[in-house]
Amino acid sequence: MHYLRFIFGLILIVLLVLVLYIKNLPNTYKVERSIYTSIPAATLYNYLYDFENWPEWNPWIIEDPEMKLSFNQNNFDLPEYHWEGKDGNGSMKTLKTNAPHLIEQQMTFEGFSSSDVRWRIKKDSDSLYWIMEGQMNFIMKIFSLQMGGMETMIGPYYKKGLRAIDRILTTQLNEHRFEYQDTVTLPNQFYLTRSFESDKAAMDSLIKSGSQELYDFAESKNLKVRGDLFTVLPQLAFKTSTWSLGLPVEGYFKTDHPTIRCRYTKERKALKGVHHGSLKNIDLSWEIMKEKINLLNPSLQYYPRTIYKVGKQSNPDPLAWETELLLPYQ
Questions:
Q1: For residues 259 and 160, what is the distance between their CA atoms, to the nearest angstrom?
Q2: Within-domain flag for 107
């Protein structure tokens, strides 16, 4: 009998010590992981902001293929989604953003306190941070202790998820996406033009400065812009070439500017294609266009024109860029 009392007393003491130990564990937790990446900040932000992209990379969703997901389509400004899975139900909603460098969210897992989730994209866009922090009530402390702690429970999943995000977006940015649209008729058009002589490496910076110059000139002369910025490159590429920028305007304007002129083109036929995404592999799209025009007539004279429908001037996310390729011919 004395032995039983001793054993029960020992068990009670162990339980009391365990309760005191759990009670004295930290009342808050924070788990943070990061990854170095070359993905543009705007691309990361847009991808993470849209919850419908999450099943592609989220480790918990991938591990539970039977998980039921529902997305709130009514409020895109503050999106949210809900899940029902084998380990429980919960929700995630966006509370605050500062595009393209910060997304603040709240995760609620059924039976536990809500947690704060943050995505931080460094301004120089070389790293992505995924952070979760929150309060630890007694039940959550017990659960965390059983699972080896929040770092052990969440950290490996965060690391896996960050690697998946980087891999998926790298693939998408390098993917060649091109849509050939056959022959179109280009209308009569007036346009402001500015010519340059440079190699290909200098084109990006010249397009940026030259386009601003054309837009500023049009605004200063009250000229209505009637289309998107375009470039006209020579048919044959040399190390250094003369090429021009064009900006469609409503009508003819006689300029006294030393480098900006107003030109006119007549209605003509052209082969058209649309290059989607980053311009790093646009040469592949031009090769397809040139093959198409050679099939039409190898002796045709053509003047390659690139129209930046959606580009870095209007959208910093390369995945959203849309570039028209035209081969007007005589």
A1: 54
A2: yes
Together in a domain, 99 and 144: yes
Domain boundary among 112, 143, 174: 174
Number of domains, the chain: 2
Mean pLDDT of 239-263: 91
Where in the sequence is the domain holding 313, given as residue range(s)? 177-328
**What is the structure's pLDDT at 300?**
83
Q: What DSSP letter does each residue of 240-306 carry, written as one string?
A: SEEEEEEEEESS------SSEEEEEE--EEEEEEEEES-GGGHHHHHHHHHHHHHHH-TT--B--EE
Q: Which residue has the higher pLDDT, 98 or 5?
A: 98
Strand partners, 276: 177, 322
- Say whether pLDDT at 103 is over 70: yes
pLDDT at site 21: 46
CA dihedral 84, 85, 88, 92 (to 10 degrees): -60
How large is the greatest C-alpha to C-alpha distance in the chain, in angstroms? 112
Could you tell me the CATH number of the domain that includes residue 28? 3.30.530.20
Q: Kindly state whether residues 62 and 170 are assigned to the same domain.
A: yes
Residue 1 domain flag:
no
Q: Residue 237 is part of a domain; what is its CATH number?
A: 3.20.80.10
Residue 54 carries which DSSP code? G
**What span, in angstroms and rounded, lies between the C-alpha atoms of 63 and 71?**
19
Residue 6 domain flag: no
Give the SS3 label for residue 131: strand
For residue range 158-190, what is the model confidence (pLDDT) as tens digits?
A: 999 999 999 999 999 999 999 999 999 999 999
Q: Are 148 and 93 part of one and the same domain?
A: yes
- Tell me if 10 is assigned to some domain: no
Residue 263's DSSP bridge partners are 191
Average pLDDT over residues 224-231: 94
Task: Please report, for the chain, how many H helices and E strands are present, in that order.
Answer: 7, 15
Count other C-beta atoms under 10 Å from residue 12's C-beta: 10
| 201: number of Cβ within 10 Å | 7
